[in-house]
Design goal:
about 300 residues; mainly beta; two-stranded antiparallel sheet
Length: about 300
């Protein structure tokens, strides 16, 4: 009853302030090892409101599965229940020299690379999929624009991500330097950037260095990245071709190197835009440690 009351209060607040509500749903149909099933992957609910000409507030709820639980003997088991997390509670404030972000904010270590890839509903970006970064965290960020297409962003964060509270009282610093277009999935252009992240610990700092680049021109979108984090190195290359207004074809190849071991991942398929916010993608994927997997991915937006 308490949860229902909280949700009703939230929706009352939302409609009272006349903001905008959006959402996106990811699910798929998978066939693997002679077995098949529909799977729910993600649901995001977003509410945003312009508080003034210079300030905007946004809340994002993330519905998914944690796959983490323990039994009576403290053994790790799979938890398949759907749970809801508060992913963002972010205040953006524009000023003459740039923008500040406060609260539970999206991190600046992966977003441009994810848009270079362009198909989050099919597969996470290489950085996110291999758990090199957290996509949101509690803290403060500043971004500044120089010239026309040169942007520098700095964030000071807890470092635990949006699903965990601060436990070690050691914060993380993220730095992103980007030149060029920041959203190649929607706009033509090119970009080149570098990401550096460091979190001091009692033993040694946890660091990330990422170099990325991409371009979109006449229906072709290409991107690549090199990510190095402590003892791991990740390389990802992706290519997309817009056949017509409805159909695109794509391929992506990732290589993760860790302790003299290589994990290779390949995915290829097509995307059909049905209109009205509906995308469908039949695709295949293969890693060097698993059998071939057939998927049919869906995305609904409103």
């Amino acid at each position: 009853m308490k949860k229902v009351t909280i949700l009703l209060s939230l929706f009352t607040f939302v409609f009272a302030y006349n903001g905008s509500i959006t959402g996106v749903t990811y699910f798929d149909y998978t066939r693997e090892n002679d077995a098949s099933a529909f799977n729910f992957n993600r649901q995001y609910f977003s509410y945003s409101i312009d508080m003034s000409n210079d300030a905007k507030f946004k809340v994002v709820f993330d519905v998914g599965r944690t796959n983490k639980a323990t039994d009576e003997l403290e053994n790790n088991i799979e938890d398949t229940r759907l749970v809801t997390f508060l992913k963002k509670a972010q205040l953006d404030h524009k000023c003459e020299w740039g923008m500040t972000n406060l609260g539970l904010i999206g991190t600046n270590t992966y977003g441009i690379q994810e848009k270079n890839w362009g198909y989050r509903f099919i597969e996470k970006s290489a950085l996110d999929k291999n758990k090199f970064v957290s996509t949101a965290d509690l803290g403060v960020g500043v971004s500044m624009n120089f010239l026309n297409n040169f942007n520098v962003g700095i964030q000071y964060l807890n470092g635990e991500g949006y699903k965990s509270p601060e436990i070690n009282y050691i914060q993380k610093i993220n730095l992103n330097v980007n030149y060029g277009e920041t959203n190649l999935s929607k706009n033509s252009g090119a970009n080149l950037g570098v990401v550096y992240s460091s979190e001091l610990t009692e033993d040694s700092p946890l660091t990330l260095f990422s170099l990325y680049g991409g371009f979109a021109f006449r229906g072709i979108r290409f991107g690549t990245e090199l990510d190095i984090s402590d003892e791991k190195a990740l390389t990802s290359v992706y290519l997309n071709y817009l056949v017509n207004r409805k159909v695109s074809i794509f391929s992506r190849y990732d290589v993760l190197e860790e302790d003299s071991d290589k994990d290779k991942f390949f995915i290829s398929g097509l995307v059909y835009n049905c209109g009205s916010g509906i995308l469908i993608s039949p695709n295949i994927r293969k890693s060097n440690k698993d059998e071939l997997v057939y998927k049919l991915n869906f995305q609904f937006t409103f």
